[in-house]
Write the structure tokens for this entry.
Amino acid sequence: MESATPRPHRAARPAQPLTGSIAVPGDKSISHRALMFGALAVGRTRISGLLEGEDVLRTAAAMRALGADISRDGADWVVSGRGIGGLTEPADVLDMGNSGTAARLLAGILATHDFYSVMTGDASLRNRPMRRVIEPLKSTGAQFFSREGGRLPLTIIGARDALPVSYRLPVASAQVKSAILLAGLNAPGITEVEEPEPTRDHSENMLKHFGATISVASVGHGRVIRLTGQPELRGADVAVPGDPSSAAFPLVAALLVPGSSVTVQGVGLNPLRTGLFETLREMGAALEVTNQRIEGGEPVGDITATYTSLRAVDVPARRAPSMIDEYPILAVVCAAAKGSSRLRGLHELRVKESDRLAATAALLRVNGVHVEIEDDDLIVHGGGNLPGGGLVETHMDHRLAMSALVLGQVTGQPVSIDDARFIDTSFPGFLRLMRGLGARVEAA
Ligand code: S3P
């Protein structure tokens, strides 16, 4: 975080509809993985479209501290890897900033590297549960010492003769799955992960792309992934698509502001990431996908959102993994839609960059929307006029900040946020890009 001073902002209803055709920064999940797999590969990995957000820059710094050579080459990033098991002990504490993905995936890598390391993060990350990766990773033979509750700072003493792990995920988490697969890269034999619900499969796709032997089989609703340890990963080119989780914000703004039409080009359309778009269509949204193609092994397309009046929706819990980061912005849509929406099974939102279930409810309430939380469900009573006028506490959470600023485009009174700094973790340039479409967002 560059500045130590909070940057309050205010959003207000624009005089004109939002229009334009834009590209959003690269996918955060794929960007972290490209740097990590590149560092574990032999030879050169060239990455185009890498997200240069704070979270991903933390991963780049950590992989450098572990011995990988990472540099920027024009608009691309180039990684010269050390090969499986070839990373070296870092000279200092690894600071993963705000990024849960960076911390959890790195814990997997460090578990099967035979050296001492310590990982920390900012106040938000130091409050997030790491036990979900520590427990399965202990089975490799690694030792972990954490603060109470499995929280960072975390000391890891990597296993000397690592064992492969076989684990059934108790929570649907791509981060936990990926941590185990990353650990398995330096353990002889088969590492096996069973997930009861499919979660984003970028690690599996990229492992294949880098030459690993990995199989994915469907079992019931879920999947079993088997990875053969100690392969030789070969450096490869990676084209990072636009992040669908970032595209969500300008697209939703266009759906809500009367008369608007906005296109986001080159958005990743991996089916395990597109639950929001499916949900918006159920609400009656006009979303058109054109120019569909495969880039770097991932489906990509251009999405155009055109203003439409929307109806309430009931989102099943099973859809949560495919839209887990999109609930704050979906809740904003529900506030503007006609009728009462129910978003089910949101327990995982409680352990994101903030307690996103409570914070999303608060974001809407402080702006005059009637919201209820029943167990793990969020109920949003939409359809009335949207008063706005509230000051939203963003709790170091980029997605809450962006969701609140989109809400402010359609409320009677402006919506304020306490701090816009954390937007840079996933979406540098968000404010400029939104203003370019005609949105009203200004420093307060
Ligand atoms: C991510 C997985 C999700 C998501 C996060 C990125 C990943 O977290 O919320 O933003 O890149 O694997 P969980 O695995 O905790 O669901």
